[in-house]
Amino acid sequence: MDSYNQTQRTEFIFLAFSRLQNNQVQLFLVFLAAYLATLMGNFMIITLVLLDSHLQTPMYFFLSQLSCLDICLSSVVVPKILVNFLRQHHTISYNQCLAQAFFLVGFAGCEPTLLAVMAYDRYAAICQPLHYAHLMRSKLCIQLSVAIWLWGFLDSAIHVALASRLEFCGNNNVPHIFCDVPPLLKMACSDTWVNELTNHITSIFVGLGPFLFIILSYFCILASILQIHSNTGRRKAFSTCASHIAVVLVSLGNAFVNYNQPSAGYSLEVDTLISTSFCIVTPMLNPLIYSLRNKEVKGALRKLLSCWKIA
Question: Are the C-beta atoms of 168 and 189 separated by less than 8 Å?
């Protein structure tokens, strides 16, 4: 029986594609357009931060990290989805499935901590302006960046290591459009209580902890802004935080719904919609939110475009 189970789980089949057979060409074009928009928008942010000296500050350093994270998160799942739209057999090998889940959970785990660090940057800039250069010095920013990526992939390694121990009893049908830890738990015939307990515990440190830190940071920021007597000064302080708040609400809201499902789970259609929004729509929206609401980013973009025209 063990050898039979091992044979059966060498390849998994994505069930969600069977519900989308009548619209696969249209969906391929939609996913391709969203992926290209994600790449273009986020590469634009990274390029602007690298080329424009006015954007080489801690705030935009972490913004470029967010763009890099969004590119990676989307690239883990979308290319495989696009390939499966063009194939009759919507499959993935067992090892590829675990690898996809590992990188997906890793990149997803980095984002809340990165957003918390970005909130701290705004707190330091608004509440501690005289000490900002010391609080957000270059060496510390690099150390924080490395810690963010290590933290996310430590969380991922724990989840995927536990998932690799699950037995599937010949069930190789993934109730999803890509590999993630929650769908693997639904497939398993062995006891998953350790996996579920680990998921709830790590979500406190990886998701809830950074979220509470962000809320605390913005309470302090709000208190400082209310002490500013000038309406212009208040508007300027609010404008520096508006884009970050929007990204926090979109990113962490989607992540919470995706990784804290009810015990009964969602339907296949709802689950696919939520995960698609988390891995594809959110990475596409983040650069739009920052570029549309940020005067410095728009100014740097106009400067870059004018240089290209001259060239």
Answer: yes
- The secondary structure of the chain, three-state, reads CHHHHHHHCCEEEEHHHHHHHHHHHHHHHHHHHHHHHHHHHHHHHHHHHHHCHHHCCHHHHHHHHHHHHHHHHHHHHHHHHHHHHCCCCCEEEHHHHHHHHHHHHHHHHHHHHHHHHHHHHHHHHHHCHHHHHHHCCHHHHHHHHHHHHHHHHHHHHHHHHHHCCCCCCCCCEECCCCCCHHHHHHHCCCCCHHHHHHHHHHHHHHHHHHHHHHHHHHHHHHHHHHCCCCHHHHHHHHHHHHHHHHHHHHHHHHHHHHHCCCCCCCCHHHHHHHHHHHHHHHHHHHHHHHHHHCHHHHHHHHHHHHHHHHC
- The pTM (predicted TM-score) of the whole model is 0.86
Q: Which tokens belong to 173?
A: 């049908």
Each residue of 40-58: pLDDT tens digit? 999 989 988 888 888 889 9
**What would the pLDDT profile of 247-262 be if each residue is shown by its tens digit?**
888 777 777 766 666 5
